[in-house]
Design goal:
Helix content: 10-25%
Strand content: 15-25%
Strand order of the largest sheet: 2-1-6-7
Structural class: alpha+beta
Radius of gyration: 26 Å
Length: about 220
Amino acid sequence: MPDRQPTPIGAPGGPAPRTLACPLPRPPTLTTGPVAGIVADKATASGAPAWGRRRVLLLNTTFEPLTALPLRRAIVLVVCGKAEVVHGDPAGLVLHSATDSILVPSVIRLSTYVRVPYRARVPLTRAGLMHRDRYRCAYCGGRAETIDHVVPRSRGGAHSWENCVASCARCNHRKADKLLAELGWRLRVLPTAPRGPHWRLLAGVPDADPLWLPYLGEPAA
């Protein structure tokens, strides 16, 4: 007698399909004006969540800038009552959960004062140097795209705030490994090491939100 084949799950007369005991949570959604239902963690072309890369400026109760937080961490602080939203997203984006909605923050402020220990010299980074020189070439004043050592490293120049400047690609190529005196060039501004708590933050943030600038000691764009 031939073996009887089992009836497929879900077929008439077959066993009912099982459901997950703990269904996967639905991702939060974003709305902006009349556009609703946009999935917050919608992947970009690179496959990474677009909103997951966003940063939020965290201020002390005194409005002193402390650090740039991932958006998810900032949302947790606000929801738990440990921080308040100072500035929301310029586009008016809103995060929705099953029971609540919250404005996507750009700047938040702690509810309780945090003592910040003294911090030494600001580390030299490309982002920090570009902010210091305001993305302008130290030689011609044009739009800067690269970093140049005033005294080339091949000639003993140090990799320091005092010897590094923002430069456009054209000036960087023309200068090569020459000294300024050999070219007859002069610096528009003497490079110095930046000071202040916000510079440590800027050194690690390539693209600061324009809403942050008043809290970082710079005029808004």
